[in-house]
Amino acid sequence: MGPLRRTPAELDEARLVELTAKGDRGAFEELYRRTAPWLAVRLRRRCADEQIVAEVMQETYLAVWRAASAFAGSAVGGTAVGWLWTIAARRLVDAFRRRAHQAQLPGAIAASSPAGTVAPAAEDEVLAAGIEGEVGDALRRLAPELRDVLRSMVLDGLSVRETSVLLGVPEGTVKTRARRARRVMREMLS
């Protein structure tokens, strides 16, 4: 009798991705079962439009199925879930770009909500409701590009690299904006 085979439920996410690369549907299904709830919550923090979240989820897992062999231990800190988030963040940025492009077409009406209004992002609602007083006021007065970096890195807990991918700006720009945001916040709060 050979070595004991472990079921997909007993494997870590990195091994599940490796097995998915070999066409193991059970490993893929287990990876999805473990990571989809977490990924959906994380995407909803960045986008209040459920249709976009659903599309990004579908595109992400399709990309994982197709490109699992591209997973390398060094990607995004070496974790499979970090790799998965990087794929999802890129798909979300692509979805935002598609939405912006569609909105710029002549006579286009924003498809995400009635009468062309844009629903506030989930994090905007949390930021508005959850942070009160001077800190909340200071955050709301920050330039949008600085606020976006703080949201990604502080509220979402993303790394510089993940924030760079999500916002579509170079890592150096993310670092600069984070420093500037801290400096401006200190000035406003002193």
Describe the structure in your own words.
- The chain is an all-alpha fold and 190 residues long.
- The protein has 2 domains: 10-118, RNA polymerase sigma factor, region 2, helix turn helix motif (Rna Polymerase Sigma Factor, Chain: A); 120-190, Winged helix-like DNA-binding domain superfamily/Winged helix DNA-binding domain (Arc Repressor Mutant, subunit A, Orthogonal Bundle).
- Helix content is 69%, strand content 0%.
- It has 9 helices and no strands.
- It has helices at residues 13-21, 25-46, 50-67, 80-104, 122-130, 133-141, 144-155, 160-167, 171-189.
- The protein is elongated, with a radius of gyration of 19 Å.
- Residues 134-183 form the RNA polymerase sigma factor 70 region 4 type domain.
- Pfam families: Sigma70_r2, Sigma70_r4_2.
- Residues 31-100 form the RNA polymerase sigma-70 region domain.
- It comes from Streptomyces hebeiensis.
